[in-house]
Write a structure and sequence with these properties.
With 148 residues, the chain is α+β, with helices and mostly antiparallel strands. The chain has a domain at 53-147: Lipocalin (Beta Barrel). It has helices spanning 2-17, 33-36, 62-67; strands at 53-59, 70-78, 81-88, 91-99, 105-112, 117-124, 129-136, 141-147.
Length: 148
């Protein structure tokens, strides 16, 4: 009987020391419908990044023919502005391609790490396609094709 009384005493002490906690699941007012069904949902804005445009330059004069074809890219082409970059003959060119809002015509300029530079005038025929002409500081002339 001593064991039973010890068990009852331990149970009584445990019951007196325990507490009951009530935690509400919905802590928001039911009067605001925006919070009624939003539990566990996080709204995270996602920034859409457009893929880069490929810029391919094809020789259109004798000087350019000696150099050959050039492949470049226009990265981050957002809001009519992007970074224009390519490498030709061991020289890395970096610059900008820009268009005015709602315009199909644009200009791309780049300078090289060895002192060269290029200017391209282009026109987009659609959101993903365009053509243009490029003039290098060494006299090379290229036809440019832009695609995504």
């Amino acid at each position: 009987m001593l064991k039973l009384s010890s068990l009852i005493a331990v149970a009584a002490i445990g019951a007196s020391l325990s507490g009951c906690y009530v935690v509400p699941l919905n802590q928001y007012s039911n009067t605001n419908p925006a919070f009624n069904h939003a539990q566990g949902t996080a709204f995270v804005p996602i920034t859409a990044v457009r893929p880069p445009f490929a810029a391919r330059l094809y020789p259109s004069n004798e000087r350019a023919a000696q150099i050959g074809n050039v492949a470049g890219m226009i990265s981050n082409p957002e809001h009519g502005h992007g970074e224009f970059s390519f490498t030709v003959g061991g020289e890395s060119f970096i610059g900008e391609a820009t268009r005015a809002p709602n315009s199909t015509k644009g200009v791309a300029n780049a300078s090289g790490n060895r002192g060269g530079f290029v200017r391209c005038d282009y026109m987009m025929s659609s959101a993903n396609l365009g053509t243009g002409n490029c003039q290098f500081s060494n006299g090379a002339q290229y036809s440019m094709h832009i695609s995504q």
